[in-house]
Amino acid sequence: MAEQKGARIRIAAVLLAIYPMQGAWHALLMQRTKYPGVHSGQVSIPGGEREAMDASLMETAIREFEEEVGVAIPSDIIFGPLSERFIPPSLFAVSPYLAILPQRPQWNIDPKEVDSIIEFKVESLLTELAMRPVQMEVAPGMFHPMPAYPIQGNEVWGATALILTEFMEHWKQLPEATRTMQ
Questions:
Q1: CATH code at position 98
Q2: What DSSP string describes 72-125?
Q3: Which domain holds residue 31?
Q4: pLDDT > 90: what percent of the chain?
Q5: What is the pTM of this model?
């Protein structure tokens, strides 16, 4: 629809990293810095726009992850992509990938792009209260109820919440011993 109206769809990829920490599987999100743009200050999965030098969207996800949080991810521990998500406000078509890391890495965030990182237990998204509707500002002065995950004082909504929900549907299919590291 957007392309039919003359809008240029932007192609992007993100990388959701899962890793063991303190006896439980954790995942990494980040809060973007404030800048003049539609995703300013939002919580997201590390990633960004495809560049001409990227041979694939997986390569985009790997490059962007390393640029934003300072960790190189080998392609042999990456799964995906999950379902592509379209983000109307920024006209991004985002392909999410998943990386299962053997241990928690030492993060080295880029302060120009990342305000902070958010590490959370994957299992926390399986509780009954994990997702709830919240009023989100979808345009200046326009609020709409959106499904969101409250994670460490942040409302995680939009494409990030959709990607996490799809990931959790796959996660629930794993044996409990794998999910709980027993």
A1: 3.90.79.10
A2: ---GGGEE-----EEETTTTEEEEEEEEE-SS-------TTTEEEEEEEEGGGG
A3: 3-179
A4: 64
A5: 0.89
